[in-house]
Design a protein that fits this description.
This protein has 208 residues and is mostly helical. Helix content is 81%, strand content 0%.
């Protein structure tokens, strides 16, 4: 009980870290997917290279690269910022392929019909392509977002302020490993159900 405030702070920081990473990562993923499916050839090449790079290297290596590697070329991040950037780019790569699968599932005739009705390309992408595609990929996408929440624990390796880092600090002070990590486990389960509930509510609103 004496350490409860520290666990609460760690949980809050994990939620904030995950929320920021999800917002940035999904934006990156959607833009990359649209560029690869509906953009010019160079967009497909650049987007595909980005996806392959981040999907075929460990997240831990990416975190180390952003935190320890980039300062050598003049980009210095705090641990928390490096964590958000690394997780965002990692999620962006995975979500780009999920988005792309959804976009490819939309018939070309449906897009042409929207354009024939006088809709702009932006309107067609928003109303005719993105929302129907989201309906198709929503379960896979929310599953990836849940993995992002749990995967955020890896940034404890650079001492980013999140739940696993706080748990390790408390364990090193109290030497009560079993109790400490059981508390962290229970909190992670609670956060997972919280995020899944939020995704379910978003789905109800988006596909009403």
């Amino acid at each position: 009980l004496a350490r409860s405030p520290e666990f609460v702070d760690g949980a809050i920081n994990t939620v904030v870290l995950t929320g920021q990473s999800v917002a940035i990562g999904l934006t990156i993923g959607l833009l990359v997917a649209i560029g690869r499916v509906h953009g010019q050839r160079w967009m497909n090449v650049v987007g595909g290279s980005y996806v392959e790079l981040f999907r075929n290297t460990p997240l831990l290596v990416q975190v180390f690269l952003f935190f320890f590697g980039l300062p050598y070329i003049g980009f210095r991040f705090t641990a928390d910022t490096a964590a958000v950037v690394a997780i965002s780019f990692n999620l962006g790569a995975y979500s780009a392929e999920i988005f792309r699968a959804g976009l490819l599932a939309i018939p070309r005739a449906q897009i042409e019909a929207g354009l024939a009705l006088g809709m702009s390309l932006i309107q067609v992408i928003r109303h005719v392509v993105v929302v129907p595609a989201l309906r198709i990929i929503f379960p896979a996408l929310t599953g990836q977002l849940t993995l992002t929440l749990l995967g955020s624990s890896i940034v404890s390796a650079i001492s980013a302020k999140e739940l696993t880092s706080v748990t390790q600090k408390i364990e090193s002070l109290t030497f009560r490993s079993l109790e400490t990590f059981i508390v962290a486990l229970v909190i992670y389960i609670g956060l997972t159900f919280l995020f899944r509930t939020v995704y379910w509510l978003i789905g109800l609103w988006l596909f009403r």
